[in-house]
Specification:
Elements: H1 30-37, E1 46-47, E2 54-55, H2 58-69, E3 72-73, E4 80-81, H3 84-95, E5 100-101, E6 108-109, H4 112-118, E7 128-129, E8 136-137, H5 140-151, E9 156-157, E10 164-165, H6 168-179, E11 184-185, E12 192-193, H7 196-207, H8 216-222
Antiparallel strand pairs: 1-2, 3-4, 5-6, 7-8, 9-10, 11-12
Length: about 220
Amino acid sequence: MESADKIPESPLTRNKQNLCEVCGLEFSKRVYLKIHLQKHEGEKEYVCDICKSKCADQSSLKEHKKTHAKVFTCELCGYVCSANSKLTRHLRTHSGERPYSCDVCKSTFANSSDVKVHMVVHSDAKPFSCDYCDYKFALNSSLKRHLRTHTGQKPYSCNVCGYACSVSAGLKRHMLTHTREKPHHCHICGSEFSERFRLKKHLEMHANEKPFPSGLLEFSNQIL
């Protein structure tokens, strides 16, 4: 019969210092806990009740929640977000900046994700069909906008005057009548405009000037 000192030690014990925060098991030694944690590697059981992001353990979740405590505010309209990257994207709605472009048609976009969505229009696939007419679309979002021409739905409304429209871009243009913002600037003479198409019309005036303003054609193509 083996003596008691030769009986292998069980890794499991009631030891709060070596507690697995994932499943609640307790271990006699730290090394056993580390080996055990490898089983949980890649598991994400802890869910943020604010944004529903998942974390591997309780301590990671606590660190994640600290990101929600950080507040970034737009000085132009008061928009509030939890990350500086989100604020940067939001500011482009005021400045009109569109730093991402399509390699096929040179259309420009405010966000890189918009370029990926846009690339679908260059394919032949149009899987989204209108139930009211024969129109077909490459994007489901395009179909939804089109359907409003049949239903008359206007889901976007102004919280200042009650004006309603069928597309979000229409509401953004309308809001400029309240804020008096003019985010589109002429790089030649500095004139400011509330809408991109007005800037394009203005640039056509410069196109008739002699000598022809340097770089105008390239700039005009970028705002199409």
